[in-house]
Amino acid sequence: MNARFTLTKSGRMSAMALVGLLASGPLTAQAQTELTMYYPISVGGALTDVIDGLVAEFENEHPDISVNAIYAGNYDDTRVRAMSAIEAGNAPQLSVLFSIDLFDLLEQDAIIAFDEVIETDEEREWLDGFYPGLMENGQIDGQTYGIPFQRSTIVLYWNKDAFEAAGLDPETPPENWEEMAEMAAAVREASGGEQWGVMVPSTGYPYWMFQAFAFQNGHRLMNEEGTEVYFDDPAAIEALEYWVSLSRDHQAMPDGTIEWGTLRQNFIEQASAMMWHTTGNLTAVRNEAGFDFGVAMLPMNTQRGSPTGGGNFYLFKDSSEEEQRAAMTFIRWMTDPERAAAWSIETGYMGVSPASYETEALRNYVEEFAPAAVARDQLEHATAELATYQGGRVRRALDNAVQAALTGQMSPEEALKQAQAEADAALRRYARSR
Amino acid sequence: MLIHNADRRMQIYGALLLLPAAVLLGTFAYLPTVATLINSFFLPGFRGAPPEFVGLENYTVLMEDRTFWRVARNNLLYALGTIPTSIALALGMALFVNARLPGRGLVRMAYFTPTILPMIAAANIWMFFYAPQIGLFNKLLGALGLSGVNWLGDPGVALTSVIVMTVWKEAGFFMIFYLAALQSIPPELKEASDLEGTSRWSFFWRVTFPLLMPTTLFVLINALINAVRVVDHLFILTKGGPNNATNLLLYYVYENAFSFFDRTYAATITVVILLVLAMVATLKFTVIDRRTHYQ
C-alpha cells in the first residue's frame, strides 16, 4: 500500500530523485499520521508483547503511520479508558473493545461504521471476508461497526490422563449433557474425591457460560435488535438447572462459584479433569500442561452451541479522514490472513477469516495440533454473544441470577424470573421506542 | 486609620496565605461535589438527547433499589469487620515490636510489608490463597484432614474473606502510627508506675491507652475513610459477587457509572454516601474529640 502511495506521489519526479527518496528510507519529510489505540487482554499470558511486536512490525512497513497501542486491562477497564478519553476530548482513533459493547458505544455516539470509511471494491471484499458468525456481534441495521480480531468461542478442555485413570476412553470427550455429567462423576469417584470432574467458571463472565447452556438447549437469550431478553423461558430454566445439578446432584463440580481467573491453573494442576474455557487459553494450556489433554466442542443437549466472544476493532468518531484511512490501513494489516494466522497460533484465538485457515502456517499448525481447529469447526454452531442496549445492567442481572442459583440462594426458576424482571425494567425505554 | 489599614493588610495577607489551599480544595473537592449534586437531579440523555431534569426521582428509585440496600448493609458489615479488628491488631503489633526483642527491625519490616504492596497486587496474591482447589488455605486445611471452603465463591463466607484480606493489608499501616506514638510517651511514667507497683495491665489502660487516644482517633478516621474509599481488591477478588455478596458502595457507584453508563444514578449514590460520611465525621469530632486527651 505504502509503496504504491509513494510511487504515485513521486510520479512526476525524475528517476534520480526517486532513487534519492528511496535511499533516504523512512526519514522522508512525509508527515506522520498518529493513531492511538486501546486494547484489552482478558486471558493471562504475555500477549501484550505479541501486540507490541505486531505494532512495531507495522510501523516498519508503514513509516508514515505511527500507532500508539495502549494496553488498558480487561474488556471493562478498556471500555472505561476509551470512554473517559472521549469525554476528555482526547478520543482514540481506533480501539479493540468487547464485541458486545456495540450497543453502548452506539448509544454514546462514539463510533462510526466501517461502511463510511470504505472506498474501493477491494475493501468491500475485505469486509465480507470474515466468518459471518464472527460478524454477528459487529453489525446492526446492515452497517458494520466491529471487525473481528481477538475472537473466541467456549470449548471443552479435557485431561486424557485423568480420563484413563477413571477407566474412561481418554480419546472420547463427552458428546452430550448426560455423558458429561456421568464422566465427570466417574472421575470424581475414581479419584476418591481428590479430583473434580468438571469446572465451568461462574465469575467474570457467568452470562457467557450460561448462554452456551441455553443455546445447547435450543434457546437464544435475546432478540437481534438488542431490545428484549428471554431469561425466564422454560428452556433457559432447564439449562440453569442442569448447570446447578452438576454440583448438587452429580457431585462432579465444586459448590459455589468457580473463579474465572484461577480456573486455568486448576486445570493445569489437575484439580479438575474437564473445564469450559475460552479458546484464548489454548496456547497457554498447551505450554503449561504436564499431561496429555484434548479440546472438544461443548457437549450438546438438543443442539451443539457456544456463543462467540472476544474483542473487535472499532473506529471512533472525531478523527480526521486521514486518520480514519490510516486506521483502516492498520486494521486491514492486523486482520490480514497471514497475521491472523500468526496471532491465532500465538494465542489460541481464532483465525478470523476462512482465508487465514488457508495459509500455510495455520494449515501446518492445525495438522500438527488438532485442537487448534476446534474453535473454527464449532463456529458453524455458534451464536452471537449476549448483547443488548443497557448491556451492563442486563448482563449483571443475569450474572447475579446464575450466581444465586449456583450458590443455592435461589432456585434457578426464581433467579431467572428476577433477572428477567430486572432486565425488562432496564430495557423498558428501548422496547417502546422500536 | 493607620491601625485600620494595618488590620486590613493583615486580613489580605491571611487570605492570600489561604488562597492556594482554597483554590485546590474548591477545584477538586467542592466544585465536583456541587456538580455531583446537580447531576443527581437528572436522567441521562436517551440516544444523544440532552439530560432530562427529574427532581428527586433518582432518590426515590434509590430508596427502592434492593441492591443498594444490600450493598449498604455489606459496607456497614465491612466497616464493622475491618475497623476495630485492624486497629486492635495494629496496637497489638505496635506494643509487641516496641518492646525489646531479638530481630526487632526485621519483625517491624515484616508487619509493614503488606502496606507497601499495591492493593491490586495484594489482591492477586490473595486470590491464589483463596482459590478453592489449589489455594494455600485449602491446602493447609486439607493437610489437617479438613475439607476446604470456597472462600470467595460462597456468599456466606465471601465478605468475611474480603474483610480478612483488608485487615491484613491495613493493620501494618496503622501500626506505624501507634509505634511513633508509643515512642513519644515519656519513659519516666513507666519508671514511676514501676515504683508504685502498678501492674502492666492497669498501666496500659490507665496510662498508655489514654495517651494514645489522639492516635486512635486519627487512625479511626483513616480506617473509616478507607472502608468507603478503597475497593480496588474487589475488581480482582470478586467483582462484587457472588450475587452482590461482596459489593460495596463505591464499587456500586463505579458499576453504575462505567458499566451501566448511568452517571446520574451514580451521582445520586455518591451524594448519599457523602451525607452519611459527613454525619459520621461530625459525630466523631464533637463527641469523641471531647473525650480525647491531647498532650
Automatic annotation (TrEMBL), chain A:
InterPro entries: Bact_solute-bd_prot1, SBP. Residues 1-31 form the signal peptide. The lineage of its organism: Bacteria, Pseudomonadati, Pseudomonadota, Gammaproteobacteria, Oceanospirillales. PANTHER family: ABC TRANSPORTER SUBSTRATE-BINDING PROTEIN, ARABINOSE-BINDING PROTEIN-RELATED. This is ABC transporter substrate-binding protein. It is found in: Periplasm. Keywords: Signal. Belongs to the bacterial solute-binding protein 1 family. It comes from Billgrantia zhangzhouensis. The keyword Signal applies.
From TrEMBL, chain B:
The keyword Nucleus does not apply. PANTHER family: BLL4140 PROTEIN (PTHR43227). Residues 72-284 form the ABC transmembrane type-1 domain. CDD domains: TM_PBP2. Keywords: Cell membrane, Membrane, Transmembrane, Transmembrane helix, Transport. This is Sugar ABC transporter permease. The chain crosses the membrane at residues 12-31, 76-97, 109-131, 157-182, 203-225, 265-287. Pfam families: BPD_transp_1 (PF00528). Belongs to the binding-protein-dependent transport system permease family. It is found in: Cell membrane. Signal peptide: none annotated. It comes from Billgrantia zhangzhouensis. The keyword Transmembrane applies. It comes from the Bacteria. The lineage of its organism: Bacteria, Pseudomonadati, Pseudomonadota, Gammaproteobacteria, Oceanospirillales. It is a multi-pass membrane protein.
